[in-house]
Amino acid sequence: MAFLSEVNPVQPVAKHKIYKHDKNALIVSVVRCRDLPAKDPNLGSSDPYVKLQLLPDKQHKVKTRVLRKTRNPVYDEDFTFYGINFNQLPSITLHFVVLSFDRYSRDDIIGEVFCALNTVDINQAENQQIALCREIQPRSLKIRSQGRGELLVSLCWQPAANRLTVVVLKARNLPKMDVTGLADPYVKMYLLYNGQRIAKKKTHVKKRTLSPVFNESFVFDIPAGGEGLENVNLEFLLLDWDRVTKNEVIGRLELGGPKCTGSALHHWNEVCNSPRRQIADWHKLRE
C-alpha cells in the first residue's frame, strides 16, 4: 500500500497496497509527498524522508531514503511486512511520520498520517493495487485539541546545605499521543541559575499511560554565594518517548523566574519562604 499526495497543503504518499496470502505479507509502497514545508529556511527546502510503523504493536518499523533539497520528494519504495494474517488487517493502522534530516541536531518532524486499514476495502488487497492519498497533519494539533494535562511536583529548599530537593510525583489528564489512545511519558528537568542551565535530571519512562506515577526524587545543588533561590528557577518538560521519532514535548512548567505566574508563582514563593518543608502542588502544563 502507499500514499499519493495530490492535495494541498502537505501530504505523504502511499501508492498501492497488496496482500499476498501465500506469504502472509502486506506490501506498502511509499510513493511521494507534495508541497512539504521548508524546514531549512536558508535554502527554502527540506531533506525529507518517511518512517512507517504498524500499530498498535509497533513491531514493524521501516523508513525511506533521505531525498535532499526538495519539497516534493518521489520515493517509489516498497516495504514488505511478513507474518501478518489476512484477518489481522482490519486491526492494523499504518502510521507514517514525515521528517526532515538534520546533520547537526535531531531531525525535524514535518507531520504524520494515520491510516486504519478497516477504513479501506481490504478485500481488494490480494489482487490489485489500492491507491491512497492523505493530508499530513502537524503532530501538535492533537495536543492542542486535548489539552496538555497537569503535573504534581513537590519541592523542599534546604538553605543550610544549599540544596533543592524535587520530587516528581505524578501526572494526569495527558493527551492521547498515539493511535492506541495512550502515551509513554517522562519528565525532564533543568535547573537554571541567572538564566543559564546548570543541571539536568530526568525520570524513567512510564509506558502506555495517560496517568503516570513517577515518585522519583532529585537533588539539585544551588551555587553558593547567591541570595538563596532568588536567582534560581526550574524548568519541567513532560515528553512522550518514541522509538521511531524524536521524543515530543507534551507540555512545560516553569517554577521561579520571570515567566512564573499563577499557581506556579504561589508554589515557588511558598517553598522559598518555608525552608525545610516539602511542599507539593498540581500545575497545568503549557505549550
Automatic annotation (TrEMBL):
GO molecular function, a single term: clathrin binding
UniProt-listed GO biological process terms: calcium ion-regulated exocytosis of neurotransmitter; vesicle fusion
What keywords sit in the KW lines?
Repeat
Q: What is an example of a Pfam family matching this protein?
A: C2
Q: Which GO terms describe its cellular component?
A: axon; exocytic vesicle; plasma membrane; presynapse
Name all C2 domain ranges.
6-130, 147-283
What protein name applies here? C2 domain-containing protein
